[in-house]
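Field reference: sequence -> structure
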Amino acid sequence: MRRTDPRWRGDDGFSLIEALIVLTVLALAMLPLASTQFNSRRTITQADLQTQAMQVAVEQIERARMGGFGSAIADTIQDGDFLVLTQVLPDSTNPFLEEVQIVVNWESSRGPQALVVSSKRSDR
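Structure field:
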């Protein structure tokens, strides 16, 4: 026997409780994705800062090469968010070599960071 009452047709859709349960499950499933997105963004920001620091260091090394290493002097400069320390050091193993060392320091969400780039050259 078939019921003709429209309240019992079976195609009424979802109840409010069923919809809330589905939304809760979806929200819980999205939490790890949001965490992964946040961590990825932080890692990308750190990589970007390291790339910028490398560019600053290479620029300082190239300036020293163009002017001759003898013209490079021990100096500290502020380049945007980076503190750049230039040091001219004699080579400990070969008296005919000199080394220009560039230390780039910056602050990140992980604390203070540093990058060291050096280049050697013969006076001859």
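Note: The CA atoms of residues 96 and 123 lie 6 Å apart.
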